[in-house]
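SECTION: protein entry
WANTED: fold as tokens:
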Amino acid sequence: MSARRVSVLLRQQKLHCGDGQNLVTEDVTVVEGDVATISCRVKNSDDSVIQLLNPNRQTIYFRDFRPLKDSRFQLVNFSNSELRVSLTNVSISDEGRYFCQLYTDPPQEIYTTITVLVPPRNLVIDIQKETAVEGEEIELNCTAMASRPATTIRWFKGNKELTGKSEVEQWSDMYTVTSQLLLKVGREDDGVPVICLVDHPAVKDLQTQRYLEVMYKPQVRVSQNYPLQGLTREGEPLELTCTAFGKPQPTDMRWLRVDDEMPQHVVVSGSNLLISNLNKTDNGTYRCEASNAVGKSHADYMLFVYDPPTTIPPPTTTTTTTTTIPTTITDSRAGEEGAIRSVDHAVVGGVVAVVVFAMLCLLIILGRYFARHKGTYFTHEAKGADDAADADTAIINAEGGQNNSEEKKEYFI
């Protein structure tokens, strides 16, 4: 066999071996300033030479030798089946395609892409007004500067997520995002944090916040200290207390009587109002007013003075020991007391009428009884007297005998 023929066979053998080898690598995503690791791996290796090239097609490593004078590249692992290289302190300029080559015949090549992420360099919230008044609409702006890719900004007020409007500006390879939030504030928002949170693959939990400062007019409340319970009665005392909260704290507080003058016997001491001896001329609406730099508010107390309590004994039962406990009847039951008395009078009148009627019936019966006996007497006295010649004979005839005649004589004598 000639030398030329042997050379061709050898070349065919290498091609066959090369066709059985495969290069494998993965894309790399790294945060600016961190370390990127590039791995060139060979399946079914036949000890062919592996090398790594940068995006400018410059050789970084040839086997375990580094021709490129960049000390940021360091050899991590070298073998017949792998070439692994690290790149420290990655910057935007390092981004691009890196080539893994295998010296076979023909050569094999595959590339990996390095992507560099840049987190926002600054996150700032600007508030249109440092101090707002309740009911106002304020503007807040959150800016995330110089990031790659562009960030997504989310807003929260306390634990509630709000919706803002974002704008993106590109400077070279960097993006600046500004989100605007319009917020109508109330007194309940005072001291509540407004949070600007960034969603970005290069950073987690990046946020900033500002606390809202909201001024509001006073909240006023009137409470009754005495009497603690029950009605306000004539002759008893009344004590009221006025409390007010606002921002800034109210400095001016006063009592007045609505639509009338304050009674002269009313004592006002700061936030307290005292009436030592109530009477019905005190009826009316008493108002506590409080004011601060934002505005004025008030709370009203409506006073109605009731009659003093009355005491009547309750009905008692017949027992070995009889105890009568006086019962205090409020003026609200005065109508019931009058109704009870009216019922008692009606009962007494009915009883009297029955008694009078019974007595009249008895008198009628007695009268008829006496009248009947008197008629009988007159009838017996006249019996047999019509035919008598004289009175003696008439008596004898009427009674039927001498004896009766004597008795009649005595009667008429």
